[in-house]
Amino acid sequence: MLILGIKVQIYFPYIHSLKDKRKEVRSLIDRLEKKFNLSVREVADQDQWQSFVLGISFTALKKSEAIEMREKLEQFIFDEVNGEILSFDWDLFSPEDY
């Protein structure tokens, strides 16, 4: 078993309030969870208006499955986000290593 962990930092220059940011973040999280059936949370910059960081996790049985999901997520995020993707970092973890 492998765990794919992804951290995405996104910047929205047109957002001018925390209320607008929450709406944008909630929409993206809902779409990701619905389309890919994975866990997504805002993990940093909660008090920042124009930027946020998402943490995404996915459990895979094989490395190829995890890599395929990473590619799909990366493509979806770059296609669907109305802001600027500042970073897209990922790693694979094996619970047996701990």
What is the beta-strand fraction? 35-45%
Using only C-alpha atoms, the radius of gyration works out to 14 Å
Helix content: 25-40%
Number of helices: 2
What is the strand arrangement across the widest sheet? Answer: 2-3-1-4
Mean pLDDT: 85
Give start-end ranges of low-pLDDT stretches: none
Query: What is the CATH level 1 assignment?
Result: Alpha Beta
Structural class: alpha+beta
Number of strands: 4
Taken from the alpha-carbon principal axes, the silhouette is: elongated
The CATH architecture classification is 2-Layer Sandwich
CATH topology: Alpha-Beta Plaits
Number of domains: 1
Biggest sheet character: 4 strands, antiparallel
Can you put this structure into words, describing what you see?
The protein has 98 residues and is of the alpha+beta class. The protein has a single domain, classed as TT1725-like (Alpha-Beta Plaits). The chain is 38% helix and 37% strand. It has two helices and four strands; from the N terminus they run βαββαβ. The chain has a four-stranded antiparallel beta sheet with strand order 2-3-1-4, with helices on one face. β2 and β3 form a beta hairpin. The model has no long low-confidence stretch (mean pLDDT 85).
SSE blueprint and pairings:
Layout lengths: L1 E10 L6 H19 L2 E6 L6 E10 L2 H18 L3 E10 L5
Antiparallel strand pairs: 1-3, 1-4, 2-3
